[in-house]
Amino acid sequence: MIAPLRSAALHWTGVLPVAAVVLLALTWGRALPAVLVVLVSLFLAGAVLAAVHHAEVIAHRVGEPFGSLVLAVAVTIIEVALIVTLMVDGGDKSAALARDTVFAAVMITCNGIVGLSLLIGSLKHKVAVFNAEGTGAALATVATVAGLSLVLPTFTTTTPGPRFSPPQLVFAALAALALYGLFVATQTVRHRDYFLPMTTAGEVIDGEDHAHPPTARGALLSLGLLALALIAVVGLAKAVSPTIESAVVAAGLPSSVVGIVIALLVLLPETIAAARAARRDRVQTSLNLGLGSAMASIGLTIPAVALASVWLKGPLILGLGASHMVLLALTVIVGDLTVVTGRATPLQAGVHLALLAAYIVLAVSP
């Protein structure tokens, strides 16, 4: 028992998260020269791959949909810490950072991860099959919380600008947290079968029969290494964020592009894991990762930012602009039409990816 654990710990997926955290400790709070930025970026990419590996080990041990939930929640908790840290350091210029990052996460997950998963699944297996009941419930929850947290502030009148008043912010935070808790309970307890992968014939797959699951000690080791890898991913992303911000300013791009880059970096582990699941004809697992990450991003970020606003200086802007509200509405409508049948072709995948492309183009050129 000890030998396999020692071998797993000495594998590159065990060594790299530890090395990445050491590099993070050595570079934290320092201005990085170009050479160190390249080195940090390489370790960041390695930490992402290690996180995906350990997430898949845990998922194999605990089964679906618990495996997808572990990765989504772990990534989002550290993402929240990154957002709050950047807002504390940024002052007034980061007033819209939480909104930009959360909305970027919604667009990347609901259109990017979902579209990529459907494309891979439908091209490899002719049609991508998933459970419409579970996927539809997840999409409805994402749409509701996104509307309450990101759309309503644009139209409220108590506080000037696209902002919530303190009571409104408390309500939005509690509603997001309550709906996320209800979603997790539905996904893991009461209607777990709605979130299990399905075969092309429509049969539910409960468990994998091609390999033995890892031991409990092996899964715990992977859980610890996953935590280290995710801390490294977010910490190193913060380390290179000044370079990203400088590059965005030098290129004359809007500040919202910073939120997109942060969301892309943080969501990279889920994206890779979802693509791998789709290749194995586990499209439901991919959708659990995508929509679960969107739900976790809003459901945990908004309450955390609301709590942090007690000591944060400056305004907290949450309301979306007109073009982003149109994109959110299109995402919800197209998502509903995609999931209603429980089957998708490359056409539906292309529509979602086109919406993501439109979001990126409009972010770069509003």
From TrEMBL:
UniProt keyword terms in alphabetical order: Membrane, Transmembrane, Transmembrane helix
UniProt key word Zinc-finger: no
Residues in Sodium/calcium exchanger membrane region domain copies: 34-188, 222-363
Record's bilayer topology term: Multi-pass membrane protein
Entry's transmembrane regions: 9-28, 34-54, 66-87, 102-123, 135-156, 168-189, 220-241, 247-268, 289-311, 317-340, 347-365
Top-rank taxon: Bacteria
Compartments, record wording: Membrane
InterPro entries, per the entry: Alkaline_pH_Ca-Antiporter, NaCa_Exmemb
PANTHER family recorded: SODIUM-POTASSIUM/PROTON ANTIPORTER CHAA, SODIUM-POTASSIUM_PROTON ANTIPORTER CHAA
Name of the protein: Ionic transporter y4hA
Provenance organism: Streptomyces albospinus
